[in-house]
Amino acid sequence: MCDAARDEGAWLRVVTWDPAYEHLLTLIREATGLEGEHLRDERAQWVDAPDAAHRRDGVPADSLGPVPADPTGAVRDLAVGRDVAGRGTIAFETHPMLAVLESRGDALADWLAAGQALLRVLVTATRHGISASFANQSLEDPDLRKEIASEAAHYGHPQMVMRLGLGGNVPPTPRRAISDVVGPPKKADHNTQKGSSR
Q: What is the pTM (predicted TM-score) of this model?
């Protein structure tokens, strides 16, 4: 998986040493506690939404997995605070394998490279029977992201934090048709080009 990231110009760093590992776990937990009601409301539109059976996007209830028995674990519960039928509860490992995907810079081209690296890492992981879940809530807060950059990232800018391990099979989530998200390029409006008097 590290080679897969490197092939796209990024790095996947498996964080295994203390104290960086414990600090990263702490930052993930801290970020989970910082999530506000507005974020939970927005997520409710995507996760187990009332119209989920008729949608081609979102995360249906049967793809959520069980509720973590320990709410302080490094597991992102997409339906936190909501009662979703049939999920059950499970004790996740207290010290999961954590990895940070890093890019050389933090500009748009670096984000694209990180996205391509993430895709390649996930495909490689799947091929080897490894599941990944994202713990990127710790990167959504600028201050926490800086801490991760100084503690757990060694080559560049952290773009994704992941839990890696062996997971069970879940049904695939719905997908939109390509034509719903990608269209033909728009023609340039010559009236708004450089030098236009408008």
A: 0.75
